[in-house]
């Protein structure tokens, strides 16, 4: 009976995973199809003949500049999120700060707000500071949503770290800052990697901030390039799917490389 239940649960799990992954599969195979085969009835679930013309067309276009912009924006936003959230979460976890519960409530509320709510205020602020049409505007905008999430996650982890570790480091001659950098940060590395990866993925997939704060298309990331390609090519689906496939490859590669750290960070945070 137990084996039968496991088989049923496994089949259900495979079906659910397949349902979620099917759009990704369809996106990839569409990139290798010809425009005629895409509209063929009934549809083909595997290309009759692979063609790379759509990838060549996209690569010969502006995808290189879009890709570079995405790397710059996502990397800077991730670094900013970690630099601000790691010490902030540690301070909220270790020090008695008046009004900390209200501060955490504000952080939590910011996670419930859609990006469109903060779009207009940020536009006004960036316009007054002269930050429009620069990399800085989308970096700061994505970081404003990434920092609260990272602080909430890391604070929970820091609370679970025994204070005796820091006290032992102080006995060995370490100050608080040195103990934080040499003891707490290495222990917390899996959770920090989780926060960094999520911040990177969020910045990589951002569209609304980039096209709102940057009118200069030379500064647009891949998501904005895909948005622009819809009108430019009159929705040539194989070119568009090739563009999209290229844009998601870095995310997949990063997830595969950091999978061990991501799982370890999430599990350790839940245990703590």
From TrEMBL:
The chain crosses the membrane at residues 7-28, 71-92, 104-129, 135-158, 179-204, 240-258. Residues 67-258 form the ABC transmembrane type-1 domain. It is found in: Cell membrane. It comes from Gracilibacillus orientalis. Its main location: membrane. It is a multi-pass membrane protein. Keywords: Cell membrane, Membrane, Transmembrane, Transmembrane helix, Transport. InterPro entries: BP-dep_ABC_trans_perm, MetI-like, MetI-like_sf. Belongs to the binding-protein-dependent transport system permease family. GO terms for cellular component: plasma membrane. One of its GO terms (biological process) is transmembrane transport. It holds the Pfam family BPD_transp_1. This is Carbohydrate ABC transporter membrane protein 2, CUT1 family (TC 3.A.1.1.-).
């Amino acid at each position: 009976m137990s084996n039968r239940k496991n088989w049923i649960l496994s089949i259900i799990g495979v079906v659910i995973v397949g349902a979620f992954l099917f759009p990704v599969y369809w996106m990839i195979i569409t990139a290798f199809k010809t425009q005629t085969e895409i509209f063929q009835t009934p549809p083909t679930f595997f290309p009759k003949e692979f063609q790379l013309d759509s990838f060549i067309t996209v690569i010969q276009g502006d995808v290189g500049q879009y890709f570079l912009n995405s790397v710059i924006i996502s990397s800077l936003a991730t670094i900013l999120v970690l630099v601000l959230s790691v010490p902030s979460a540690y301070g909220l976890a270790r020090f008695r700060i008046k009004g900390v519960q209200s501060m955490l409530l504000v952080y939590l509320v910011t996670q419930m707000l859609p990006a469109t709510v903060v779009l207009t205020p940020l536009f006004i602020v960036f316009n007054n500071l002269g930050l429009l049409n620069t990399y800085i505007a989308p970096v700061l905008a994505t970081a404003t949503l990434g920092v609260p999430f990272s602080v909430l996650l890391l604070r929970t982890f820091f609370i679970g770290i025994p204070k005796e570790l820091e006290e032992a480091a102080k006995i060995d001659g370490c100050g608080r800052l040195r103990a934080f950098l040499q003891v707490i940060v290495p222990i917390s590395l899996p959770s920090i990697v989780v926060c960094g990866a999520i911040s990177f993925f969020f910045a990589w997939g951002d569209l609304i901030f980039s096209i709102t704060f940057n009118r200069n298309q030379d500064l647009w990331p891949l998501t904005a390039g895909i948005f622009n390609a819809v009108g430019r090519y009159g929705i040539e689906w194989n070119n568009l799917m090739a563009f999209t496939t290229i844009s998601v490859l870095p995310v997949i590669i990063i997830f595969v490389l950091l999978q061990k750290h991501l799982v370890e960070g999430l599990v350790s945070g839940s245990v703590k």
